[in-house]
Amino acid sequence: MLKILLKRQLIEDMLTSRFFISLVLIFGAVCAFSLVFADHFHKSLDSYSKVMSQNDRNLQQFARSPMKNLSSPRQSFLLKPKPELFISEAYEENIPQGFLYDPGNHSLQLLSPKEEVSGAQHYRSISKRENLADVLTYSPDLTFIVQVLLSFLALILAFGAVTAEKEKGTLPLIYSNPAKRAYFILAKYLSALFTVAISLFLGLILSLILLNVLSVVPLSFSLISSFSLFFLVSIIYLSVFILLGILCSVLSHRSKNSLVLCLLIWVFLVIVFPKSTGMLLTMKRFDVPTGEEITQLAQKTYNETADRLEKQLPADWSRMNFDKYRRNELFLKLESEVDKSQQDTLDYYLRKKLSAVAAARRVNSFSPASLFEYSASSVSGTGLYHFESLWTQILRYENDFLSFVKNERSVLEKGSFFYLTPETISDKPLDFNAIPKFEDKNPKPGERLKDALPYVGLLVLYNLFLFAFVFYKFQTYDVR
Amino acid sequence: MIRTIIKREFLDNILSFKFIACVLVALVIISICTAVQSEDYRGRLKNYDEGMASAREKLTDVPTYSCLTVEVYKRPSPLSIFVSGIERKAGSHVTITHMDIPASLKGEAVRNELADIVSQFDFSSVIVVVFTILAILLSYNAITGEKDDGILSLVLSNSVPRYRLLLGKYLGGLISLAVPLALCFILGIFIVYFFKGADVNGKFLFTMAWYYFLALLYLSCILLIGIFVSARTKSPFSSLIVLLGFYIIFTFLVPLGVRSYADREILRKATFLENNVYSFVDEKIKNSEALNEENRLNPPSWILFDYSYQGYVLSRINPKRLVDYYKKITSLYQELNEDYAEKIYEFKRKDQQTEEQIRHVQNLILAFIPPPSFERISELTADTGEDSLNRFLHNTARYWDQYVGYLSEKDAFGLKYFFPGPEKLTPYEEDLVRKISDDRAGLITVGSHVDYRGKYLEEAMNYKPRIPFLNLDDMPRFIDSGQTLVQKIRDSFFNIVVLVLYNLGFFVLAHFSFNAYDPRQGV
Predict the structure, then answer these.
(1) Distance CA B19, CA B176 (A)
(2) In this predicted structure, which of A300-314, B18-32, B310-324, B407-421 has the lowest mean pLDDT?
(3) DSSP strand E in B242-372: where?
(4) Cα separation, A385 vs B193, whole angstroms
(5) Is B54 on the interface with A (CB under 8 A)?
(6) Whose CB has fewer CB within 10 Å in chain B, the N or C terminal residue?
(7) Each residue's pLDDT tens digit, B334-350
(8) Weakest mean pLDDT among A107-121, B238-252, B288-302, B391-405
(9) Which residues contact B431 (CB under 8 A, 6 or more apart)?
(10) Could you tell me which of A125, A130, A121 has the C-alpha nearest to residue B351?
């Protein structure tokens, strides 16, 4: 019975003009967006590789004479542009583009989004004026297509599920057949889901082809896995809207009312709510100092710690004759602590910023559209997730680099405290190839999915709840 | 008769669920976002006032003309509470030196750079999102709905001319939009007044009234499109679905596509500076090295040279020959820097012009699509958009010319690092000079010049002479008078005209479609 109902519904859904129009719309959007994406992606990949080769040059200089060039292994670690950005751009251009690591000064600083990364900071091109996006701006990616266009299609397919049948008078007819109510609603749901899934699937295939042809992105396993994860997440998200549509239909007696209700819910959940929670971040609780103030605070911590620790040094110590203490273990320990206190302040505020955004995201969890946006950004490894993963990778690399220098070129006896200063390393050339190099790796699909899991879980919960509600309501629906 | 129709339409509308839901949502969002933005504006205004005060303060203790750097703050627009535009993100001030003509603002208005991910709603977005939807919902069944209910034939049998019915429907819808819109404006202004966001004065209210009119013009356009579509379709469903399809396409999809394409074009074409700046900087370095080589002082005797503020003190007690030498060479450097600042600015201008051209085309295209066109009109009216930023930067560039002119008039260059006190040294200073000159052991060679690190260093560093500060009353001041309402209207004239034309055009179209409409049911 379910089969027959499903077949009938599918034919009804797929042969409507709304399905074809939305298909055309999706294809058009995919084509336009991939045109915009292709060029930009290569350009940003180019500038990324320029910065990476500058890093290599700095490391080479360091390898030639480690002691003299201790300030030169400065490296900029940037967010590597990924082809996955086409799935979800997640405002990656608007967040800080990475970190500047300076082992000589033991500092890891946030590169501000305004900064020109390739060197000539003072002559930042006017064309690179940061994206001063307005409120209602979205990014041209697949997430937008699913979040706004397809969710709308889902509602349009489902709003008349029950009411339209009633108005046509076919509903009592179906009941006269031995069809269970559950089967009827299930058929409606599955058919709409299938229709949406088909259009999404075609859109994804088209974008994969366009990506391959236009921007010459090879079809790697990781890209395809990102696409499939995105497909999965999108289906869960769209299912929420189909269920919402059916719910509206069950709750109202006329299709017209159902459509109006659907529309209001859609506008609120997809546009108004996700776009207005940014106001939360202006609250006192989430307030952070400006960049300048943070630098000053870090400097202050540095000075305070230095003053406090200076007392532990021998009495004949003064700032003018510290050459003598340079290799002293106690001195090195204290110096490392002072540097660490400065770095800790910077890290503290970065974590605070991240947690403020996370709090705003938690509030946004109310809206399935935001949940979808976040899970899409996580499964494709872009946006804030990319930034956080970059940070973790850099911290790991920092350890690797320091322990490499310690093992290779430390002039201190083994066992004594190592701290990277010109006096503690020898000046013999290093093997450039052996120095660990940093590379921004895309986390494995499993890890990405794990990060998206809370959001996806909530979406699934939404689904279950809505499904139960629809089911319950429909059992008591008056079909006359 | 027309009054009856309007009255019926109005009552019908305001008692419907959709109307109440939309208005409630709009009121709630507006009250929250206006309160938040008021607070934000107050913060920015405070920042502006403090910045201006500290800039004035700094001008009172400038020892030499060449140390004269001026900070110019951009005054936040009071209407940014309603139309946030790019004001919060663009920065707050520029620092004017002779080395650089600013092409972007400094100062971080957005504290948490990671929070760019979540945006804030404002009054104008409520109009573009919620009120547009309301206008669509009020008009999609203007004609088809009546037909479905069977009322249309009834009304038409009452010897009402069709154009009157149409006019009545339109005016009824417009009033049902104008009333909640007015409510929102009053609520917004009240919140601004209550939270002391901006100074609610005559000018503010006048601009708000003009903005209200513009919003109504925009909504009337949407309303007429709705009535037109309703008169062309057979059932309210198809009418609503067509309208919503248009809404999504023209509010989100097309503007997004056009803006992204424009962004891409800007990135691709406005690369003049990027392509030339490196060779240019190399050239500058080469020139300055040549300058250094030409004027090399052989051999340097001793100099206490410190680039900090105390440097004035130390340079004061350097031998006159060295002071003269450094005066000369820094003067040459300043000319070089100024020259290059102008050239770099020319480069930047070229890119800026390319950007402006592309943006111009973008705005021209978007002017024909009501929602983005209204967004632009809002930004122009509130003076918070990119045009406002560009105007400010343009003004600062003009001010830079005056500023540099003033400096050269005062013969400022060449004195940058030198104490501007009287020629003759005081007895104490003479004593210090003699002591340091005798202390030959304290001189060490650092790179190309000789540095003093002897036992009198501390004394010389701690010596604080009385520094006479400059009187800068005759200095040219930066004036940013802001846009008057007439200028704002002139800037957004094209967009407004297009909206008016849309209104007229769609009214005529709706009229013709309605005249040919078949009011019978079930045909």
Answers:
(1) 9
(2) B310-324
(3) none
(4) 41
(5) no
(6) C
(7) 788 888 888 888 888 88
(8) A107-121
(9) none
(10) A125
Tally the C-alpha atoms within 13 A of residue B313's C-alpha that lie toward its C-beta.
17
Nearest Cα neighbor of B466 from B420, B430, B423 is B420
CA dist., res. B487 & res. B381, Å (int): 9
- Chain B residues with CB under 8 Å of A291 CB are 108, 113
Q: What is the pLDDT of residue B373?
A: 94
Tokens, residue B298: 């052989």
Residues B197, B40: Cα–Cα separation, whole Å:
8
Strands (E), B158-220: none
- pLDDT tens-digit readout, A329-344: 777 788 888 888 999 9
Q: Is B50 on the interface with A (CB under 8 A)?
A: no
Query: How close is the nearest chain A Cα to the Cα of B402, in Å?
Result: 23
CB neighbour list of residue A407: distance below 8 Å, 6 or more residues apart: none
| Cα(A107)–Cα(A97) distance, integer angstroms | 17
Structure tokens at B482: 């802001």
B17 Cβ under 8 Å from any chain A Cβ: yes
Q: What is the pTM of this model?
A: 0.87
Helix (H) or strand (E) holding B329: helix B320-366
B313 or B434, which is more confident: B434
Query: Best residue in A135, A145, A374 to probe B by mutation, most B CBs within 10 Å?
Result: A135
**Nearest CA-CA distance, residue B425 and chain A, Å:** 31
Instruction: For residues B376-383, give the mean pLDDT.
Output: 92
Closest CA to A190 of A420, A448, A6: A6
* Chain B residues with beta carbon closer than 8 angstroms to that of A46: none
Chain B 341-370, residues with CB within 8 Å of chain A CB atoms: 344, 348, 351-352, 354-355
Nearest CB to A29 within list B89, B115, B253: B253
Q: How many whole angstroms separate alpha carbon A367 and alpha carbon A334?
A: 50
| pLDDT bracket for residue A129 (50, 70, 90) | very low
Selection from B117, B357, B265 nearest residue A43 by Cα: B265
C-alpha–C-alpha distance, residues A418 and A103, integer Å: 13
Dig out the tokens for B218 from the structure. 């925009």
Partner residues linked to B422 by β-bridges = none
Query: HEC states along chain A?
Result: CHHHHHHHHHHHHHCCHHHHHHHHHHHHHHHHHHHHHHHHHHHHHHHHHHHHHHHHHHHHHHHHCCCCCCCCCCEEEECCCCHHHHCCCCCHHHCCCEEEEECCCCEEEEECCCCCCCCCHHHCCHHHCCCCCCCCCCCCCHHHHHHHHHHHHHHHHHCCCCHHHHHHCHHHHHHHCCCCHHHHHHHHHHHHHHHHHHHHHHHHHHHHHHHHHHCCCCCCHHHHHHHHHHHHHHHHHHHHHHHHHHHHHHHCCCHHHHHHHHHHHHHHHHHHHHHHHHHHHHCHHHCCCCHHHHHHHHHHHHHHHHHHHHCCCCCCCCHHHHHHHCCCHHHHHHHHHHHHHHHHHHHHHHHHHHHHHHHHHHHHCCCHHHHHHHHHHHHCCCHHHHHHHHHHHHHHHHHHHHHHHHHHHECCCCCCCCCCCHHHECCCCCCHHHCCCCCCCCCCHHHHHHHHHHHHHHHHHHHHHHHHHHHHHHHCCCCC
Contact B453/A at CB under 8 A: no
Q: For residue range B293-305, what is the model confidence (pLDDT) as tens digits? A: 777 665 444 555 4
Asked if A332 contacts A419 with a C-beta cutoff of 8 angstroms, the reply is: yes
Task: State the pLDDT confidence band at B419, using cuts at 50, 70 and 90.
Answer: low
Note whether A36 contacts B264, CB cutoff 8 Å: yes
A100 DSSP β-pair partners: A76, A109
Whether the CB-CB separation of B469 and B61 falls below 8 Å is answered with yes
Specify whether the CB–CB gap between B211 and B80 falls below 8 A.
Answer: no
